[in-house]
Amino acid sequence: MPVALLALAISAFGIGTTEFVMMGLLPNVADDLGTTVPTAGHLVSAYALGVVVGAPLLTALGSRVPRKRMLLLLMVLFTVGNLASALAPGYGWLLAGRVLAGLPHGAFFGVGAVVAARLVRPDRQARAVATMFLGLTVANILGVPAATLLGQHLGWRATFLVVAVIGLASLAALARMVPEIPVDERQGLGREVRALGRPQVLLGLLTAVFGFAGVFAVYSYLASMTTEVMGFGESTVTVVLALFGLGMTGGALAAGPLTDRAPRPTLYGSLAVLAVTLVAFRFTIHVPWLALVTVVLLGAVGFMTTTPLQMLVMEKAKDAPTLASASNHSAFNLANAGGAWAGGAAVAAGWGWTSPALVGAGLAAAGLAIAVVAGLLDRPGRRAEASHVVARGPLGQDPGVRKPVSPASGS
To answer: What does the alpha-carbon distance between residue 300 and residue 270 come to, in Å, rounded to a whole number?
Structure first.
C-alpha cells in the first residue's frame, strides 16, 4: 500500500479521536458545566451537525482545489475547531466549537476516500479506503481511551488540546507523504450534484442514516451504561471504549477484502448481525463478561457497514464521486446525531439505560430494509460493483482507461 495512506490514516486517527471521545467524557462535561448527561449528549449531535453541513458545503467550495491542498486546508480547520473547544468558556461556546471541529470531517473523508482509491489498482480500492478508515478504529483503541483517561484526570479541556496537537502532526504527514493530485477538469460542481441526485446514491445515503444510527444509539451512552448497568467503576470506561475500538478495527480489516469481493452481501450481513447483536446487548449487559464480548461484537459489525456503503455510493456516482463520497459522511453523522438523540430520548423517557439497545436494533433493521430495497431496484447487467469504483484508476492513469492488471503487479 502507498505510504500516502499512512498520512490519511494519521489524520483519520485525529478525527476519530475528537468525534468519539465526547461519549466517554459526557459525565465529566455534564458535571463541570452543570448540566445533565442527556443534555451534554447534544455535544455529540453538535459535532455531527458540523459534519452534515460541512461535508457538502466545503466539498462544493473546494471542487476546483487540488486534492492535496484541499486535505491540508480541511485539517487546518479541524485543528482550529478543537482548539476552540478546549478554550470554550461555557456550554454554548463548546457547542459552537464542536460544530466547527465537525465541519471538515465529511469533506476530508470524502476527498480522502477518492484519493486513496486513486493511489491503487482497481481491485484493491476498497482495501485502500478501509486502510484510511483504520485510523478511525485505532482512535477507538488508543486515542479515545487515552483521551478519556486524560480528561478524567486533567479535565476535558486537556483532551481537546491534545487533539489539536494531533491535528498539527497530521498536517505535517499530509504535506510530506501525499502526492500532488490535480482536479479532473471535466468534473465540476454541476456534475457532482447530478451524480449525488441519482436514486441509488440517495438510497445508499439513507441506508447509512438509519443503519449506522443503531450503533450510535448505544455508543453515545456506553460510558453511562458501563457504570450504571454493568456495575463497573469510572476507571473501567476507558477499557470498555478500547474494547469497542478493538472490535471496530477487526471489522475494518475484514470489510476491505469482503467489500472488494461482494459489497452488497457484506452490507446486508453486517446490518443484519448488527440488529441481532443490539437486541442481544439488552440482555447480555447484565452479565459483565458477556457485556464486554457484546461490546467488541458491536464495534466489529457496526464498522463493517462503513466500507461497503462508501464503495457502493462511490460506484453509483463513479464519474463524479467526491461530493457523493463526502455526503456519505454527512449521512453517517446524521446517524450519529439521530442515534444519540433517539437513545437519549429513550433514557429521558424513563425506559432505563438498556433501552437504547432496542432503539438501535430497530434503526439497524430499518437500514437493512432500505439496503435490500436498493439492491432489488438496482438494474441487472450493470458493471460489477466491487471494481473500478472511481472514474480514474491508479495515479497517472487516464480517466476512463482500464488497463489489464497482472496478478503479480503491485498497488
So the answer is: 9
